[in-house]
Specification:
Shape of chain A: flat
CATH architecture of chain A: Orthogonal Bundle
Order of helices and strands of chain B: EEEHEEEHHHEHEHEEHHEEEEEEEEEE
Oligomer: heterodimer
Structural class of chain A: mainly alpha
Number of domains of chain A: 1
Bound molecules: adenosine-5'-triphosphate, magnesium ion
Largest sheet of chain A: 2 strands, antiparallel
Distance between the termini of chain B: 42 Å
Distance between the termini of chain A: 47 Å
Strand order of the largest sheet of chain B: 6-7-8-3-9-10
Structural class of chain B: alpha+beta
Strand order of the largest sheet of chain A: 1-2
Largest sheet of chain B: 6 strands, mixed
Number of helices of chain A: 12
Radius of gyration of chain B: 24 Å
Helix content of chain A: over 70%
Helix content of chain B: 10-25%
């Protein structure tokens, strides 16, 4: 009887353990993420005359803001595509390489991450100004006949963001490719698949989940980037992040800034889900074993 | 189709994976590549499959030199050690993969896949994903996937190593039956000598990338080319001795242990008269002590294995000798007993020291 009760007590205690282990994380998450986001939503739903959706009406009624949203998404998509096109082959080759140097090369690709956004942007300034390295090199090669200014353009922002986000794409995909047994490709080849077909039907098919993860990571970091667009892009590269900053810090219009943030969040969530569903095909998000 | 390996060699920088392999496998026969871990079996097989380019030498299938032919054009059925089933495809889709690549029409494809599923007792499991199958079932899907394309050669890399002993034997016999039925020339990699002996026509024993001996199971067991082969295949006792009389092929050897036995020379003894004589455990009979031509020994341990009983006995000079007898004959021995060991007068092989 006592033993039974003790057993029940032990079971109850055992059930408490995961909750206790979870609690700190949940608490931090709730205080520092959920609560501010909720307040943000609350603020965005207020106007001068009390609660209402005036802020959202203002956004959707003004083509200027539509343009900012479009520019932001365009930038995000372009950066994602660039990093995917550059990162996929790099990650594949590094993952399949038997060379001792592969590990070192992988480490090298992560170097941009170790430099702060401000310093990195400063580096791009040196390259992108009218009399900077890029312009002069292109002139010397005869590819252009007048100096170009990449600084303070959207192109500059996209190049800079792609550069810093590329390592994340490479790291994510490298891990995925490493986890896919090379024998699967060999098996496909022995069954008559050309190497490119084997790659597509087997390796890339199995890497889908990782490709989605990497793309979403890069996309969401790109559209929420603030330092690079404001330093490299300046006034011409007005994107959601800089617009939110402008509204909240410079114009002190918190409700409108909050509405911008909420819209960005919803759009990103929607796009992520759509992209995930599209590329996953049957909708299995399960990682290949 | 006949497979011929001519002086095949593979090096990685200074490391030699396969030093030199030459072998011919006749149409419809199965060659086992046998050797300890790291001896270059997989490397050899993958060169035949086309995944690894040989450093030198050539591979011929039928009359054709396929040394530089890419893997997907080689028409080989391959079963991997880890099976390498496509995890995102069902058993049936895995089997259909090669047929699709060959552009086999849907109706024929389905019919061939179904036939193969039946043949390997997989019907009912067609729609399962590999991870929903047991190890033995996955192995059969892998074999089915390799066979359904009617390859001209079949390559198997330790296909049974993930199966338990019982399943392994049954599957091995089943596979060799299929292979004979389809008349497939095949190469089979294993480090398990009994597996090699039971299903292959010819065995190639390798060590450190070097081919040691190639021959039938009985040739390799009864006339091993060197000590390594003798020890690797089956159990072996080696007793040192001195050549008394004889030519390069057979001789009388006076064993240091005290008796004289006839032996076949594995290699020409050259100038040396010292040899070691290989006596297989089943070539030693247990007798009462003092019988002429027998060795005096003390029984150390008896290991009962059902049909066979292994008696481990120590000679006066400290050498441990293993004898294999039947349960009946072993009754005369008990642990600690003094006993006589009588080597057979045939099937003994000598190796120069
Ligand atoms: N890519 C490589 N680079 C360098 N050495 C290699 C490479 N692949 C194999 N080797 C070496 O070649 C030798 C033969 O390897 P292999 O895989 O053929 O052995 P194996 O006989 O199949 O062994 P196991 O029974 O363990 O599978 C080993 O010593 C191995 O270390
Ligand atoms: Mg191997």
């Amino acid at each position: 009887m006592t033993a039974e009760r003790q057993g029940a007590g032990a079971r109850r205690q055992a059930a408490l353990v995961p909750i206790l282990l979870f609690a700190p994380c949940v608490l931090v998450y709730a205080i520092f993420f959920i609560w501010p986001q909720a307040s943000l939503l609350a603020i965005s739903a207020s106007s001068k005359s009390g609660p209402g959706l005036d802020q959202y009406a203002r956004f959707f009624g003004d083509s200027y803001y539509w343009e900012i949203l479009g520019r932001t998404l365009g930038m995000g998509i372009t950066v994602t595509v660039i990093t995917l096109v550059l990162g996929l082959p790099t990650a594949y080759v590094l993952a399949r390489s038997q060379s001792r140097w592969a590990g070192l090369l992988l480490l090298l690709t992560t170097f941009p991450l170790l430099v702060s956004a401000v310093v990195r942007s400063f580096g791009w300034m040196v390259l992108f100004f009218r009399d900077g390295l890029v312009s002069r090199t292109l002139l010397a090669l005869g590819l252009i006949d007048r100096p170009v200014q990449t600084m303070y353009t959207m192109t500059g922002v996209i190049i800079a963001l792609a550069q810093v986000l590329l390592p994340l794409m490479v790291l994510t995909l490298h891990g995925v490719f490493k986890s896919i047994d090379r024998d699967l490709e060999y098996a496909a080849m022995s069954l008559g698949a050309r190497p490119a077909v084997a790659l597509g039907l087997v390796t890339l098919r199995l890497a889908r989940g990782g490709i989605v993860a990497g793309s979403l990571l890069v996309f969401s970091l790109a559209i929420s980037a603030f330092a690079t667009p404001s330093l490299v892009g300046g006034a011409r590269a007005n994107v959601m992040a800089t617009a939110i900053y402008e509204q909240t810090v410079e114009l002190l219009d918190w409700p409108f800034g909050a509405a911008l943030a909420a819209i960005l969040l919803v759009v990103v969530l929607g796009l992520s889900l759509a992209y995930g569903a599209l590329i996953e095909g049957r909708g299995e998000l399960e990682a290949p074993r | 189709m006949q497979i011929e390996l001519r002086q095949l060699r593979k090096t990685y920088g200074p490391a030699v994976a396969v030093a030199e392999i030459s072998a011919t496998i006749a149409q419809g026969k199965m060659l086992a590549l046998l050797g300890p871990s790291g001896c270059g079996k997989t490397t050899t097989l993958r060169m035949v499959a086309g995944f690894i380019a040989p450093s030198s030498g050539s591979i011929h299938v039928g009359a054709r030199d396929i040394t530089t032919l890419p893997a997907h054009k080689r028409d080989t059925g391959l079963v991997f050690q880890s099976y390498a089933l496509f995890p995102h495809l069902s058993a049936a889709e895995n089997i259909a993969f090669g047929l699709r690549r060959r552009g086999v029409a849907r109706a024929e494809r389905e019919q061939r896949v179904t036939a193969m599923l039946d043949k390997l007792k997989l019907s009912g499991l067609a729609e399962r994903l590999p991870r929903q199958l047991s190890g033995g079932q996955q192995q059969r899907v892998a074999v089915a996937r390799a066979l359904v394309i009617n390859p001209s050669i079949l390559l198997l890399d330790e296909p049974f190593s993930n199966l338990d002993a019982k399943l392994r034997e049954g599957t091995g016999l089943e596979l060799s039956r299929l292979q004979r039925e389809l008349g497939l020339t095949s190469i089979f990699v294993t480090h398990d000598q009994s597996e090699a002996m039971s299903i292959a026509d010819t065995i190639a024993v390798m060590k450190d990338g070097v081919l040691q001996q190639i021959g039938s199971a009985s040739e390799i067991y009864e006339q091993p080319a060197n000590r390594f082969v003798a020890e690797f295949i089956g159990r072996a006792n080696f007793l040192p001795g001195r050549i008394l009389t004889g030519d390069g092929r057979s001789h009388e050897v006076a064993l240091d242990a005290g008796i004289t036995v006839p032996a076949i020379a594995s290699a020409h003894p050259g100038g040396s008269s010292r040899v070691e004589v290989l006596i297989r455990p089943e070539a030693i009979a247990l007798t009462e002590t003092g019988r002429s031509g027998s060795l005096m020994a003390t029984v150390e341990a008896i290991s009962y294995q059902g049909a066979t009983v292994y008696v481990h006995a120590r000679l006066a000079d400290g050498t441990l000798v293993t004898c294999a007898t039947t349960p009946e004959s072993s009754r005369i021995a008990a642990q600690g007993d003094a006993i006589g060991l009588q080597p057979a007068r045939t099937r003994l092989v000598s190796f120069p020291i």
